[in-house]
Amino acid sequence: MDKLTAFVDGSTYAESVCDHAAWMAKKVDLPVELVHVLERAHASTAPANLSGSIGLGARSALLEELADLDAQNARLAQKRGRLLLESARERLIADGVNDVTMKLRNGDFVEAIQDTDAESTVIVIGKRGEGVDFASGHLGSNLERAVRAANRPVFVAARAFKPISNVMIAYDGGQSADKAVERVANSHILEGANCTLLAVCKEGDALAEKAAKAVKRLEDGNVEPKLVIRPGEAEGVIEDVAASEKTDLLVMGAYGHSRIRTLVIGSTTTAVLRACKIPVLLVR
């Protein structure tokens, strides 16, 4: 069964993840699955070397104490995870979504993405996780891992929720960008939205011609499109046009081509995601 899958944690983005998931779910009448992942510890609490002056009895006692501490921490993490899921579920219900399921998972985040991928229409995740300092400007490590692992579109929620009425596609002519155009054209979630297709190039370039064809595809779809051709550096142009068009959602191909190139967390996409204060939908 198709569903929206929203990954929640204790970050400041969790509420926005819930609100965006609720908004989309109501648009297309889909259930929402909330997932919280208890990732494996990256380091053991046991000391690396218990040799030397510590006697056998003392070492055994210390190991037992550390094992008890690990077990206690695991129980607290599970309790906290359940509370986070319950709080997210309550928020979704308050937003008008009643079909909400919860899943508390142990293991790796990427494995969780892959396991939910087949039945998910969209995967929703916050731009930064709870372990990332907002002021640092760094993206959450799980964001890159999620996009690389997912075969479904990944909706990257901004800090605050706003209903989406103006969409912009950053179009570079690559395969992922063409898939993004198809996704927007056929989207019932974005039905009736204003859609700007931006190509960072000069008038008359091959990319401009291809962008014009992409706009015709959008005209046959569920949105109201217009074409913007603008030369310059991709990152700056995308940011400027998004602001001038009062864009609520930026759509990009997850794998780039031409000026928006390399793997998803490459030069342009990373810069745009870092600077962007609006949600971004990444399509493979």
TrEMBL record:
Gene3D superfamilies given in the database record: 3.40.50.12370
The UspA domain, residue ranges: 3-156, 166-284
Pfam families: Usp (PF00582)
Family statement drawn from the similarity comment of this UniProt entry: Belongs to the universal stress protein A family.
PANTHER family tied to this protein: STRESS RESPONSE PROTEIN NHAX, UNIVERSAL STRESS PROTEIN HP_0031
Protein name: Nucleotide-binding universal stress UspA family protein
Organism expressing this protein natively: Martelella mediterranea
